[in-house]
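Homework help board

Subject: predicted structure for assignment chain

Our instructor gave us this sequence and asked us to write out the predicted structure in token form, then describe one feature. I got the tokens but I'm not sure how to describe them. Can anyone check?
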Amino acid sequence: MKIIETRAAPNPRRVRIFLAEKGMTVEFQELDLMKGDLKTPEFSALNPLQRVPVLMLDNGSAISETVAICRYFDELQPEPALFGRGALGKAEVEMWQRRVELSLLGPIAHAFRHLHPAMAKLEVPQVPAWGEANKPRVLEMLGILDTHLAETRFIAGDDYSIADITGLVALDFMKPARIQRPEGLANLDRWYGEVSSRPSAKA
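My token output:
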């Protein structure tokens, strides 16, 4: 079993943090997306969307999509319960995980892919107007999270979850995307300080 990744990309980092929280060790294989390694016929056969990470199982199965990979490992080792506990807890984690992924990490990625010069050869065509249009969406979601975090320790409640992993990676991805985090978001800053100081954040 191994995970194919580009280490600098945000989604493989989400998987690495998840595994670190679980205390699980998996072999990694590095591909360089900037050199076109994800465009090869060999990799495209594993994931036709040409994205990392991809989990390769010993039986030859290939699992792509970050959360799907995390769910696979969660089934192998349920503790700690990073997808929540009980019907309500699991639903709340799923709700916030999707909100953070679709309304924060997604817009940051769009801004990066459509505005960063290094992505010009990979994001064809780059649409700068679309990249700029996503920046206000990022700021809006940060405000929503700040308000929400006034009432809860972590994004989906009192326990650390995959929603926090996605949120941490999203905020860190703002730097290469060249989006400045606004000042005055005290609750978000408190949360970020806590989750970024966990040992898993360095995975």
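Reply (TA_rk): Your tokens look well-formed. For the description, you could write something like this. Strands lie at 2-5, 27-30, 54-56, 62-64. That's the kind of observation they're looking for.
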